[in-house]
Design a protein that fits this description.
By secondary structure, the protein is of the alpha/beta class. About 35% of the residues lie in helices and about 15% in strands. The chain has helices spanning about 35-45, 60-65, 80-85, 95-100, 120-125, 165-170, 175-180, 195-200, 205-210, 215-220, 230-240, and strands at about 1-5, 25-30, 50-55, 70-75, 110, 130-135, 150, 155, 160-165, 190, 240. The chain binds zinc ion.
Amino acid sequence: MSREFGLLKEIDINQEQTWLNKLFITLDIDWAHDEVIEYVADKLIAQQTKATWFVTHPTPMLEKLNSCPLFELGIHPNFNKLLQSNTEKGATISEVLDNLLTLVDAPLSFRSHSITQSTEIINAAYGKGMKYESNTFIPIVSNIEVRPYQHTSGMIQLPYVWEDDVHFLNDWNYEDMYQKVINQHGLVIIDFHPIHIFLNTEHNDRYEACRGYYQDVHILNSKRNLGVGTSTIFERFINLEKKKA
Ligand SMILES: [Zn+2]
């Protein structure tokens, strides 16, 4: 089994060969510690695997990610605070986006934290030059073959089909799901969180046990799962033979 890997920004909805049956790895950074981000980046680089990163915060790691041609940097705006009348991430949709646009130069892709979506968010993001939104989760177990489509604003919509935390919250089997993803046709976008790769999370209890310590790499190290987990399936994907375009 081999797959061609892609970046979201490479997708052209008028040219099927830019997305059909490729595998797109995306990563929601979710304020992960620098060493956690670097751990994941180094694994991807070692296997020469492309990935689209959704950035949440300033970190020296952005320079490393940005300088690697395997990677695309998109943004991961958090609108939850706004919905709670908390202006910590910005007082308006536009400000939440602008705060991340100071970190990533002219990003083309975004996914909201908690996949918050609205017409106003799409219009604001499109107005700021973004072309791709990946905010719709269509679980692979629904057996729906996904394809990119265009929102009336012009934004290209890129649904994703698998996510690490949804996997362990549903207690799915890693080998079964690996096979399902690599045999999935159409648009195949999967989503990881660096913290779950680092912890090799297999159950939400492991992640919750680290609450309060997500910025303490020594404690995170001591809490890693040594069995089968998120890192196991991540390694399987990045070790797939890379088909050339
Ligand atoms: Zn998130």
